[in-house]
Write a sequence for this structure.
């Protein structure tokens, strides 16, 4: 077994520290906490991808150390179980505890969680704890405890309101036993902005996996504590734009890749 910790430390020494990109401050985060994240952290990757010819597809896969981990959700009778309730349209509030996967499929879905929201599917088929999919802007904010095969947020294209974006802000915890603890997919034309400053752990796969299709915008990812059996952070970026990945605490990958710069296929890259 190999451990990417040593690679992480060497990159941490070489990396720059500076203001981080926080598009907005989540409601659960104090001004002081937001300032601390902006002003301290290890910049793992900061790359600008050059323009490709129209129609060209060249996969760019970056592997980094580390594990750090709806609604067409059938109504659940017991109020003690978790429910993601819609109201107003395309706006969902999740609360309670359950072992049933929470699956939300809606365009421009806005999902928030109440304190104490927990999903643990490990004893009920080990499905994804939470999945939110749809066209347009997919947004999530909250502090959940999510256990199962992982968590996934996907924008599948443009809507009447958005070109297709991801806006994910959480200090919740993910404990996964699946391919990816946290997966972010952008098949739209907008940016991916994700800040997950809770614990992300995966005992059987990658910690964080992000994909950006050709035509998508910039990627900004900020994580805290990531530990995974395979790759800690894995980025597949086919778009033209800026990629920034920042870790504020250790990112550990055990059998997968350690921390490193993007491969040579990325034309310009700075750390």
């Amino acid at each position: 077994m190999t451990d990417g910790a040593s690679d992480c430390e060497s990159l941490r020494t070489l990396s720059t520290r500076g203001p981080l990109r926080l598009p907005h401050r989540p409601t659960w985060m104090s001004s002081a906490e937001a300032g601390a994240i902006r002003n301290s952290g290890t910049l793992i990757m900061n790359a600008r991808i050059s323009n490709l010819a129209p129609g060209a597809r060249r996969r760019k896969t970056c592997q980094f150390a580390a594990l750090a981990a709806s609604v067409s959700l059938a109504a659940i009778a017991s109020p003690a179980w978790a429910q993601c309730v819609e109201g107003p349209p395309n706006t969902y509030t999740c609360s309670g505890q359950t072992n049933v996967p929470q699956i939300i499929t809606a365009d421009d879905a806005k999902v928030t969680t109440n304190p104490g929201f927990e999903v643990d599917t490990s004893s009920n088929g080990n499905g994804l704890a939470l999945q939110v999919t749809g066209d347009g802007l997919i947004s999530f904010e909250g502090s959940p405890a999510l256990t199962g095969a992982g968590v996934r947020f996907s924008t599948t294209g443009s809507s009447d309101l958005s070109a297709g974006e991801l806006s994910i802000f959480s200090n919740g915890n993910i404990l996964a036993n699946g391919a990816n603890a946290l997966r972010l997919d952008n098949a739209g034309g907008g940016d991916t902005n994700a800040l997950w400053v809770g614990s992300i752990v995966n005992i059987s796969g990658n910690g964080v996996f992000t994909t950006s299709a050709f035509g998508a915008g910039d990627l900004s990812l900020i994580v805290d504590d990531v530990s995974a059996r395979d790759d800690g952070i894995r980025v597949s970026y086919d778009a033209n734009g800026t990629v920034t990945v920042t870790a504020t605490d250790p990112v550990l990958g055990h059998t997968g890749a350690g921390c490193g710069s993007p491969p040579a296929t990325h034309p310009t890259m700075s750390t």
